[in-house]
Amino acid sequence: MREGLRREDILDFSASLNPLGPPESVLQALKGELPFINHYPDPECTILKETISEVLDLPGDFLLCGNGSTELIYLIVRALRPERVLIPIPTFSEYERAVKPLGTSVEYLLSNEEKGFQIDPGAFIKKAEAFRPRIAFLCNPNNPTGGLLGRREVLQISDMAKTLKMFLVVDEAFVDFIPEESVIQEVIDNPFLIVLRSLTKFYGLAGLRVGYGVLHPSVMKEVALYKEPWTVNTLAQVAGAVALRDDEFRQRTITLLAAWKAQMEGEMRHLGIRYLPSAANFYLLRFGQDTHVLCEELRKRGLLVRPCANFRGLGPKYIRVAVRTPEENKNLLQELITLSSDLSSPYTSLL
């Protein structure tokens, strides 16, 4: 960093990753795999796909592994070449970036700010029926708002997609934190539903880049034609397979994150910091004015947050912060209050 801070002095709240880091089981497995990195990785990701198939009880021919789920977003768009796409906003910006080079017509469904940017399933369906897109994206839980559509509501939308013969891409990158809300099994009976998953968030594997998609075989034929070989490296394949079998790590993460989130929410309420309820491991915070100076001052102190000015539908008054350990969370929140006072700016207010 320009301030000369060492890497170990930086607390990164900008990346929404598991604060526990990767499972110890993964780290040990990677050590054993290092002697084999002089070989090309398995282009079919056989062991990883077999693990996903067994853990999630899904047929192997429904699975496609990628260099994070983001690779699969771009891959699906290249393969299906949609003329029209529906994107609810604010949401993950890579959906729009993926379709723009194609000259695709994009329709946006803007969620209501006063209602916490919660997606309205009825409005989504109505917009899709009127616009008739080839692809509609749905991030659930949504990034960067943390909002969640319940499983029943997502299935209402996916039923509509099947009727319209529209592909609904449900991005479940953060659903591991609330797995009961996943619709991944529904792909088996709905060829117009595509579900994407990431192993980088929940399992702390961002540096290895590994994710997967669940697609009906009738769609897989078309999409797989555009898949580049060897995009998932050997270490990523091993890490993903081992992580998915680590039940103890999974339960520990869910238990600790629930407690740490509850504590963080209590402190934010006490300090008067506005935040949106979140089903994921991050929060969207709103302040009284442009947060550019605030983010810069935090950065100088070794605290990185995610400014949200470049999210369509948001603006410079919003930042996203990840949930880290209780001590680290408290450090960030105290700095927010200190900077509000030091900068004579109304950065905090009650929701």
Q: Could you characterize what this model shows?
A:
This protein is of the alpha/beta class and 351 residues long. The chain folds into two domains: 7-21 and 247-342, Alpha-Beta Complex (Aspartate Aminotransferase, domain 1), CATH 3.90.1150.10; 24-244, Aspartate Aminotransferase, domain 2 (3-Layer(aba) Sandwich), CATH 3.40.640. 38% of the residues lie in helices and 15% in strands. It has helices at 24-33, 46-56, 68-80, 94-99, 121-131, 151-164, 217-224, 234-244, 247-271, 292-300, 326-342, and strands spanning 11-12, 63-66, 84-89, 105-110, 135-139, 167-171, 193-198, 211-214, 274-275, 282-286, 303-304, 306-307, 318-322. The chain is globular and about 60 Å long.
Task: Kindly summarize this structure in a few lines.
The protein is of the alpha/beta class and 351 residues long. The protein folds into 2 domains: 7-21 and 247-342, Aspartate Aminotransferase, domain 1; 24-244, Type I PLP-dependent aspartate aminotransferase-like (Major domain) (Aspartate Aminotransferase, domain 2). Helices cover 38% and strands 15% of the residues.
CATH architecture of the largest domain: 3-Layer(aba) Sandwich
What's the helix count?
A: 11
> What percentage of residues falls in helices of 4 or more residues?
25-40%
Please tell me the total number of domains: 2
User: In what order do the strands lie side by side in the largest sheet?
Assistant: 2-8-7-6-5-3-4
**Low-confidence parts lasting 5 or more residues at pLDDT below 50?**
343-351
**General shape:** globular
Please give the largest β-sheet: 7 strands, mixed
CATH class of the largest domain: Alpha Beta
The count of strands amounts to: 13
